[in-house]
Amino acid sequence: MSIRSLRIHELDETVTPIDIDFVRCYNLGFTMRDTAKMQAHLEECYKLGVKELICDRPPLVMPISMWATLTDDVISVQRPKTSGEVEIVTIQDADGTVYVTVGSDHTDRSLEGHDIPWAKQVTPNVFSPDAWRWEDVKDHWDQISMECWVVDSGERVKYQEASVSEFWAPDEMLQGVRESVVPVPGAVILFSGTVVSIEEKLRFAQEWTIRMTDPVLGRSLEHTYRVELLAVEVLNDGSATGDVARGAALTG
Fold it and tell me: pTM for the whole thing?
């Protein structure tokens, strides 16, 4: 069982707590409507050695284990070159009810050059435990926006901004997954993919804030998480010099 506790924000401003037992998480790629903008994000990843991606039949689907899909406000990573990004998160419960929220598929960028799904599996997929019902926002969905802010070396920087209209809508992403994977009964969660950063450069920041704003209903969803680097805490790694923990491990 992979139960996550969510808070559903209703139109009457009440909050409904629910528990969802997820069976699958899928990271999606090639879901942007503007192929030039999608290519721009790919290019900033290619600069770090990621192999060129080709997808003739979108979406690109990467299954992620549910143990790596969290709503935590602190995550732990092994290497310093990890980064997040703002994404649409679509949740479909076992009864078919659809919710939307905001998330970040935090990724090990050093490992991404060798194996993309592996790089996304070893660092958590983070999403906000606050969500909206898809039925409540679908009629004005294209007016909703997203942004990401980071704290990098003590400096707070606006890292990304985008309209959700730049991506497939949640119902389109659900249909794309249905056509791309063997069906598994139960609740699923989808991460949409993202846009190029404002600076067109990946940041390996220590804190990430992701936000989704609905100007029509005058509300927003926001989640902040901090990144802990585990290797710097190791004093004895079994080597004579400690280089594995304090040196070589921190270059990747």
Answer: 0.90
